[in-house]
Amino acid sequence: MEAFGLLLHGFAVLLTWKTLVLMMVGLVLGIFVGVLPGLGGPNGVAILLPLTFTMDPTSAIVMLSCIYWGALFGGAITSILFNIPGEAWSVATTFDGYPMAQQGRAAEALTAAFTSSFIGSLVAVLLITFLAPMISSFALKFGPPEFFAVYLLTFCSFVGLGREAKHKTVISMSLGLLLAGVGMDTVSGQLRMTFGSSELLRGINFLVAVIGLFGISEILLTMEERLALRGHAASISLRVVLSVWKDLPKYWVTLLRSSFIGCWLGITPGGAIAASFMGYNLAKRFAKDPESFGKGRIEGVFAPETAAHASGTSALLPMLALGIPGSGTAAILLGGLMVWGLNPGPLLFVEHKDFVWGLIASMYLGNVVGLVLVLTTVPIFASILRVPFAAVAPMIVVSCAIGAYAIQNAMFDIWLMLGFGVVGYVFKKIGIPLAPFTLALVLGNRAEDAFRLSMIGSGGDLKVFWSNGLVGSIATLAIVLLFWPLIDALLGRLALTGRTKAASG
Amino acid sequence: MSQTDLEIVVDDPTAPEENSPSVTSSGTVEIIVCLLLLALAAILGYDNWRTGASWDSTGPEPGYFPFYLSIILGGSSVYGLIAALIARRGAADTFVTRAQARRVMAVFVPTLLFCLVTQFLGLYVASFLLIAGFMRAVGKIALWKSLLTAFLFTAIMFVTFDIAFDVIMPKGPLEAAFGY
Question: Chain B contacts of A421, Cβ < 8 Å?
């Protein structure tokens, strides 16, 4: 129970007035960002990151992770009251959440959404508390070949398991890896791909790219649509909360199943969206009366929200333990860690105990405080939507510019942000996924260093990636995942011919 | 539960029309993007080859990793180009309608101007102009409301970043006149 003692220590680090205030500020900002159209978790965290530059790392990460929890809670408000999913993973929540609001059961639906978010995150945080230290102490034995194999696994699973067209994922990933290499080469000190420009000497900053790709491009996309909206305002009374909570034990199977799906998909990259749909579909399939889904059934809110939050939270597990983010937002938090001079990865658990356990403790506290906060303040946040988008859009643009500038105090970065905004807009419209790009940009240098160090160590022999059981199985798994669609099709055909033979014979 | 819900209604006075004609199809844009990426891959590939993309006594040279990545990028762009050319014969999805393009430009052009003004007059002046101008022109919001909102937002940003958190933003002649 070493983890438990360290966790208590983490709580002790947190329980100061300053951190608690920062936590509240982070949550409020997060809900705000989650409710506003055209902004979500990753954008909110990216834009507000500069605010934390002058804080100490623990306060900074507490505030940022609270912005993230807040954004997750906020997404549910617009899905249920206005039928506008704030995030892709809130889409499944609208299926039953909005019908419930139309039937005048908005308060019930919101309580269900917030409660299940809370349960999902809690399960995932428990998983992190006990699994992350184990994985990281295991990963301490890793050398460069093992790390490169793990990076390869991450990249390959994006290509093999992603739902987008494969070549588009490859385009997005190789572009990200290439841009990560711009500037000074860390091993030899030579300049690469700078074309004599002194601005490119610094390299392309990951956070600047993210602010452009997610912030600016999202504004452009949002403006394309009709922004008029109509929805319900709701307030939640204690009576409704208690009645929903009283029925909670009835749905324990749904909650448990969704938490499990969420945790599993969250650890593998890009999972929150898939998790919410899978949670919803499985709940529907196992229900006695599947037709009643989509017409305002409370389980239809429980299932996707639990899964989405479990996955959103467990995405932080590989980031903390291995330095590999499981989601876009986790990638941005990782970018933040680097700004504060912390090197994400297994050593974090050894060298910065206070920080890691402070962060994990803040996940528990942030969720409890967040739940109470959203349950009591929904009416205020729902009315944020009364503010016309024409006022919100320029403010977001200004915040993005401030964020981009503050990272390196460079005017060039504001232009870079604008450029990435256009790229993000076009990519999103023609279906080139942005998540692999983000991941590649943040991991690119580390992956390349690991590769080159292993090559130097082995004298240029690629067999080093199959030199022992551990690295060999990770590397093989990576290759299998890369060609998974082909293997899957082949297995399917084999099974089919086997069955027809059996039928004919 | 009783029906005590209030309705929240927000209008969008400059919304794009539904039946606006298409400017270009997604297929055409895909072809253009693939061609651009191919060109980028060629330029970066050449630069890395020049830097050195082979092996020396200590292992791979600096250009080695990015050189092969440029080849992967180029290869997948060619694949995307062919796929887009074939798919083009089928149904062409609309990339953007004319009304949508007008709205996107209504944000993009002011943002571009904002960056330009930031370069010369500083971020806070640019921010005031952008917010006030955008609210008035696109949102059709009353002039005094637009000016007041823009002023308050800019002032809050100034106090938060430049004074409270010590995150220094680019400034111009106006701030200099006040001694910042």
Answer: 111
Residue B64: band (very low, low, confident or very high) from pLDDT cuts 50, 70, 90:
confident
At A37 the pLDDT is 64
Do residues A301 and A112 lie in contact, with contact meaning Cβ atoms separated by under 8 Å? yes
Backbone angles phi, psi at A190, to 5 degrees: -80, 155
Rounded CA gap, A87 and A76, in Å? 9
Q: Which two tokens stand for residue B175?
A: 């701030």
**Distance from A288 to chain B by nearest Cα, in Å?**
26
B12 CA to chain A: closest CA distance, Å? Answer: 5
Average pLDDT score over residue span A206-210: 86
A392 touches B at CB < 8 Å: no
- Does pLDDT of B150 surpass 90? yes
Tell if the CB–CB gap between B62 and A398 is shorter than 8 Å: no
Name the H helices within A229-352.
238-247, 252-267, 272-286, 299-314, 316-322, 328-339, 348-351
Among A160, A205, A153, A152, smallest CA distance to A179 is for A205
Give the C-alpha separation, A68 to A54, whole Å.
19
B93: helix, coil or strand?
coil
Token code pair at residue A310: 């479990």
Q: What whole-number distance in Å separates Cα of residue B129 and Cα of residue B174?
A: 13
User: Residue A256 is encoded by which pair of tokens?
Assistant: 């448990």
Nearest one of B175, B23, B141 to A389, comparing CA atoms: B141
List, in order, residues 6 or more apart from A319 with CB less than 8 Å away.
A325, A326, A330, A331, A333, A334, A344
Q: In 10 A of CB A147, how many CB atoms?
A: 25
C-alpha distance from B178 to closest chain A C-alpha (Å) = 21
Amino acid at site A55 = M
Q: What pLDDT, in 10s, does the model give residues A423-478?
A: 999 998 888 888 888 888 888 888 888 888 888 887 777 788 888 888 888 888 88
Separation between Cα atoms, residue A97 and residue A109, nearest integer Å: 6
Q: Search chain B and give the residue with CA nearest A455.
A: B59
DSSP secondary structure, A393-410, as one string: HHHHHHHHHHHHHHHHT-
Distance between CA B154 and CA B160 in Å, rounded? Answer: 10
Instruction: Please state which of the ranges A8-12, A255-259, A454-458, B2-6 shows the lowest mean pLDDT.
Output: B2-6
pLDDT tens sequence across A282-297: 888 887 777 788 888 8
d(CA A488, CA A269): 19
- What token pair was written down for A375? 């349950």
When pLDDT is averaged across residues B4-10 and rounded to a whole number, the result is: 59
- As a whole number of angstroms, the distance between CA A119 and CA A51 comes to 30
Q: Does A195 touch chain B (CB under 8 A)?
A: yes
Taking only Cα atoms into account, the Rg of chain A, rounded to an integer number of angstroms, comes to: 23
Q: What predicted TM-score, i.e. pTM, was given to this entire model? A: 0.84
Q: Which two tokens stand for residue B102?
A: 């007008």
